[in-house]
Design a protein that fits this description.
- The chain is mostly helical and 150 residues long.
- Helix content is 66%, strand content 0%.
- The protein has three domains: 45 residues; 43 residues, Arc Repressor Mutant, subunit A, CATH 1.10.10.10; 44 residues.
- The protein has nine helices and no strands.
């Protein structure tokens, strides 16, 4: 088994930028992704700070892209917020990103509900439906409202 060599200090920026070219990352994600791969923790932190200053690494932009991606995958705001917190995005940046995206969560819940359940299934699977949409990250009050209206 061949051991991988560590990323040399001169190559850290290129490797991080390659990761950012594929998709947005949070600062924490980049740090965790590369900390075990680099020769110097200080060089990694230095490059992360430079990329932030240059606007190439942004938790704000990451949060907005992540919210939109998860929204279109059928997830609700509660779960998305939790996931962003786990990825190291600060609460105020998460709140700003939700405002910036301006997504309609009520209509998303209704659309997902209609896509997944037929009206005759609702009474038979009430608890299952609630559990599913809670897991997906939607608010219980809104889930109940959607169920009662259908």
């Amino acid at each position: 088994m061949k051991l991988k060599t560590k990323i040399q200090d001169k190559d850290v920026r290129i490797k991080v930028m390659n990761a950012l070219a594929r998709r947005e990352h949070s600062e924490k994600e980049i740090y965790l992704k590369f900390i075990s791969l680099v020769e110097s923790k200080n060089k990694l932190l230095e490059e992360i700070n430079k990329l932030k200053e240059e606007g190439l690494l942004s938790d704000d932009r990451f949060a907005e892209a992540y919210i939109k991606s998860r929204y279109y995958s059928g997830f609700g705001p509660v779960r998305i917020q939790y996931e962003l917190e786990k990825k190291g995005v600060l609460q105020n940046k998460i709140e700003n990103a939700f405002q910036e995206t301006g997504l309609d969560w009520d209509s998303k819940l209704e659309k997902e509900f209609k896509k997944k359940y037929l009206p005759q299934e609702v009474k038979l699977n009430y608890d299952k439906i609630i559990k599913f949409f809670l897991y997906r990250g939607f608010d219980l009050e809104k889930i109940n409202k959607i169920i009662k209206n259908n």
